[in-house]
Design goal:
Length: 134
């Protein structure tokens, strides 16, 4: 097997650090284990972030996500841990993780967590002609 799971996250320099832009990642194969039953939980992770000086390196992110495959964790705990780990390594201006877990016991769980750098003020939304919805 060429790769193994890894808890090491990597970054690279943001090619446009003076521009506030959004990077959107979709991770459709997240798995962890139910801490009560040991059965697998499956989720799609939606990671949106506005980078500052650093961007997340995607292969390292893939291996990091893979490292959760045999980890027992409640949905709320694992989503918050993901946010803490990702923001600790890349220090974004803003990050949101939306973890959409598949059905367990007839219940779908969707956990959304956010981080915002207190020193960052997001740009005002641009309203184009014809966009107004009264």
């Amino acid at each position: 097997m060429p790769s193994q799971p890894s808890e090491t996250l990597e970054t690279f320099p943001n090619p446009q650090p003076d521009r506030a832009y959004t990077i959107r990642l979709r991770v459709p194969e997240f798995t962890c284990l139910c801490p009560k039953t040991g059965q697998p939980d499956f989720a799609t992770l939606y990671i949106d972030y506005v980078p500052a000086a650093l961007c997340l390196e995607l292969k390292a992110l893939k291996l990091y996500v893979w490292s959760y495959r045999n980890v027992g964790a409640f949905h709320e705990a694992v989503t918050n841990r993901l946010l803490n780990d990702l923001t600790a390594v890349c220090h974004p201006r803003y990050m949101r993780i939306n973890a959409e877990f598949y059905v367990r016991g007839g219940i779908y769980t969707n956990v959304v967590v956010e981080h915002r750098d207190p020193a960052w003020t997001p740009p005002s939304p641009l309203q184009l002609p014809g966009d107004a919805h009264d």
